[in-house]
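Input for the complex:
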Amino acid sequence: MSVVVKRYIPIVILAGLALFSAGDTLLLEPTYNSLATSGRSASAVISAFAVGLSVMLLSRNHARRIMRKRTVVESSVLLICLWSMLVVGFFRFVVYGIRPSGDYMVQRLFNGIVAPGDSTIYAILAFFIASAAYRAFRARTIEATILLVAGIVVMLGKAPIGELLWGGLPDVSNWILNVINTAGSRVILMSAILAMIALYIRIILGYERGWMGRGD
Amino acid sequence: MGTKGSKSFIEKLQELDVRYVYVLVLLVITVPILRPIGIPPGKTSPETLGLYRYIDELPSKSVILMIADQSPAAAAECQPGMLAIMYHTVAKGLRVLFYASRTDAIPYIDDVMVKVLGKTSDHPDYGKLYVNLGYIPQAEVGLTGLASDVFFTNKDAYGNDLRSMEFFEDLPKKDASDWKLAIYFGASSLDWVVRQVTDPYGCPTGGGVAAVLVTRIYPYYPHSVIGFLSGLKGSAEYELMIQKPAEAAAGMDAQSLGHLAIVIMIVLGNIGYLASRLKSQGGA
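Predicted:
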């Protein structure tokens, strides 16, 4: 494949679309804005197809692993579950016209499997945080001590018991969040945005080509 | 003084088996849930108050966008707040437009509608006061599309045509400038709501967010984000303000004791650390 097709055409397409989207923010022209809205709809549709593509790729990779006789019992079970959901959901939609949103079966599966599983994984964090706080959160330096004191004040200030211990604790906690945290967060936020703009300019100009994948 | 054979209490404290920490955390969280001890809720935070007052002062039929972005992990903190705000909007006669920006948040919209209204699309006011757009992919791009055109999805989550709904009839511009508030529920980021709704259309943002996200909201508060519910405590405060104490208020004892236990462990750990450092300096 020539360098033009492989490198320059994708960059031109990307730069064109990026400038077109930027123009939508800057210009108030109904036809132009309507075209940009259609572009965003197309983007949503493409992302839906990307989900389908990822399912196909996942299944293909899994089939390859089975052919190479690798032990993949757990992932096989998960893949079968995924396909079962897809097939049953698609069948119910095509035959009965039941959409996944609000479907009793989907709700039951979600409430019975997904929600408890995800919540459990997240809840386990409480144990790790407590253990790490006990073993690793040490006042080794002045900076660490300031962080530690601020952390304790905010933690207690964000629970009713803080006010019970000392009435002024929520106010101190709010001051830390409102003043010190806001100042620090704004610096990080602005730096990140400037860096992001610089990155986008590099992508549009073709200096950054990681998004094209391997081969260049 | 501890010798090689016998360790001092401080040294033992430093080497405490992690399983004792786990048991302690388990106890301080589960016991108050099973047997509430009734710690007073304390005064309402200004962030919660800001959101409550803004919603309370909105004229009836004002349009509010509710963005469900909570995963099941974040739902424990966000869902009670979403429910409480929904109760408030129903009491005020406001119009609510729902949409999910992630697939696993879809059931939480139905959950709120069923718990507050008793029904979803078959409710008599569905299509007049409440519309559920379902899942819109690509979080920020999806919101940009919806903000620029309320008919971006054409149909709602149940397959009904949006253009035939009474909900949208009297909206002058059919974009985000018709909305009075966009409330984000979740734990990932609220910045994109401010970027795509507040800055270009002037519709303020609110939030019902997990506590981990709170520090990232303050740079926008109180100008772009007029108020937000900070984790479970914020949800509990809102429940108490609308006089419907529920899940969040019930979880306040567990949260209080959980936070206290972690603070005590930090203090104990540091006492042990300082004592051992003083000891080693004294011995040197």
